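Researcher: Can you fold this with uridine-diphosphate-N-acetylglucosamine in place?
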Amino acid sequence: MDYYLIKGGRKLKGEVKISGAKNAALPIIVASLLADGETVLSNVPDLKDIRTIIKVIEYLGAETDFDAGKNTLKIKVKNIKNGEMPYDLVKTMRASVYVMGPLLARLGEADVSLPGGCAIGERPVDIHLSGFEAMGAVIELEHGNIKARAKKMKPCEFTMRQVSVGATANLIMGAVLTSGKTVFENCAMEPDIVDLGEFLIKMGADIKGLGTERIVIEGVKKLNPVEYSIMPDRIEAGTFILAGAITRGEVKIKSCIPEHIKSLTDILEESGFEISTGKNWVEIKDGKKVTGFLTKTLPYPGFPTDLQAPLMSLATTIPGISVIIETIFENRFTHAAELRRMGANITIEGNSAITKGVKKLSSAPVMMSDLRAGAALVVAALAAEGETEIRRIYHSDRGYEKLTEKLSALGADIKRVEGGTF
Ligand code: UD1
């Protein structure tokens, strides 16, 4: 298995272009199943998760042509079919549950494997399922599979018991072709949901309230295929800002939406870093004096759980105490133990991580346990003394496009080594 070798201590300097957002592209690719004809998506990042979801929609009858070099994906839809997807395909990525919305909307039936737990917690899909039940679907669980059947999808008013990005996306896709008025309350307001909604509106859907807690959908008879460009990835943007911050460098993030990462740049500014922003760029520079901070992860527009791990890496190098509280996932501190191996001073108390800044992190062999924990290790290694070896980098391949190339262009000393023995 490939691994990274990172020699830390270099200040990152320069500009980096942000790729298309994985978490917007995933539901948008699946939503293309809602219209017959050819959908053309641009700014699609070349990532393992994207390649998996492409296989998923091919399995359901779509024809695809992904030009990874140009980040363009063509999707031809003629006769989609329901079918139990091989568990091997589904188990690597929870987002495959997204096919339920379009399949129920178009065929009135959907069979998918029930996603298992994962490294960051149990991650149930009960909100997706109770939403579809409110829309008239009958749901059975059999041999680890979800079997959903709806003679006719009906409009409804449904309040999600907890804010869920996945359930909001899935239910919107399930409702756009349902005749009548469907109202969802307590919706996720993440930019990824807004991007999905705008794609659907371009296809002809009638959706109001995107980016708010209440989304109202008037069902339309038919959607048409369109061309659409995926928004920039705010989590990738935030990770590069944190890479700039931890090396006390000067990094300009281009092709991003500064508003999407304001919760992060606000924390960094308060901590003492210098932040400047323009229409589609953000720049970070070291401040005269940086100090510890207190933050907690929250649904958008709050601080995103997906940046909690790399923010913790930065916290371990900031003089004084910082506290990060995780409120979204119950088990999202696996990176803390690996960071301790690199000399970090972190105490976990329940869902709080308390860090005391150390003068220098030092290199150690470490292992990624999930995608964003992996980002934390890369960020930490950039600032650590010596050469850090990071294993299980297939996790970061799921969500960071051209990571070594982009970091090298900023002056990092990072190598991807092929084929280690473990
Ligand atoms: C999405 C993102 C992920 C991000 C997360 C939170 C994608 C592909 N993934 O994941 O990167 O970390 O949002 O911003 O977009 N929950 C339930 N029942 C459900 C659904 C969710 O209890 O039916 C809980 C989850 O366990 C979690 C919380 O709700 O504690 C939020 O999860 P959710 O927003 O659904 O995350 P995902 O959509 O899986």
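Model: Folded with uridine-diphosphate-N-acetylglucosamine in place. The chain has a mean pLDDT of 95.
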